[in-house]
C-alpha cells in the first residue's frame, strides 16, 4: 500500500488547526498497512474482475470502523466522510459486496484471510521484540516469568437503564464483575 503524503513525518499533538475526528483510526489503518495486513488481505481476496476498491483495503477499513465503535456496516461511512484524512473509501454497498464475496469463498477464503492475519501478527510481534530486545516478562508475586505473554482484561462497569418491561441489569443473571474476573483468570497466561 502507498503511504499518503500527510502520513510521512506524522506527529500526534493535542491541538492545532485542521483537527479532524476519528484521527486515531488513521493511525490504526497505517499500522495495518505497515505490518503488511492490508497487502496480505489484498492478495488473499484478489479477483480476476476489475475492481475499483481493493478488497483488502475494504476489509481493513471495516475492521477500523469496528475498532472505532461501529455496530452496523453503515457506520463504515464515518471513514468515507473524511476523504482528506482517509482518501477514497469504498461505499457501504461495496463493503457488503466484499463481505458477500468472502462468504461465497467459504472455508478457502477464510483460510487465506486467517493466514494473512497470522502473518501480520507475527511481523508485529517480531517488530516489538526487535525494537525492545525481547518481549517483557510477566511479574507474578515476586517472580518474573520470561517467555510468557499475559493478557490482562480490565473493564469499567457502566450502569444503564431500560424502560423495557422485565429488563434486568444482566441477561445472564449474575454480576458483570464476577463474569469479567472469571474471564480474566481464564485468559491470563500463554497466548498462541
Number of strands: 2
Strand content: under 5%
Q: How far apart are the first and last residues' alpha carbons, in Å?
A: 28 Å
Low-pLDDT ranges: 172-180, 184-192
Can you give the mean pLDDT? 76
Helix-and-strand structural type: mainly alpha
| Adjacency order of strands in the biggest sheet | 1-2
Return Rg in Å: 20 Å
In sequence order, what are the helices and strands, one letter per element?
HHHHHHEEH
Helix content: 40-55%
Count up the helices: 7
Largest sheet: 2 strands, antiparallel
Shape: globular
Walkthrough of the structure:
This protein has 192 residues and is mainly alpha-helical. Helix content is 49%, strand content 3%. It contains seven helices and two strands, in the order ααααααββα. It has helices at 23-34, 37-44, 55-67, 77-80, 83-86, 92-132, 176-187, and strands spanning 138-140, 143-145. A two-stranded antiparallel ribbon has the order 1-2. A hairpin with a 2-residue loop joins strand 1 (138-140) and strand 2 (143-145). The longest helix has 41 residues, at 92-132.
Give short descriptive properties of this protein.
two-stranded antiparallel ribbon; 7 helices; 2 strands; mainly alpha
Summarize the structure.
The protein has helices at residues 23-34, 37-44, 55-67, 77-80, 83-86, 92-132, 176-187, and strands at residues 138-140, 143-145. It has 192 residues and is mostly helical.
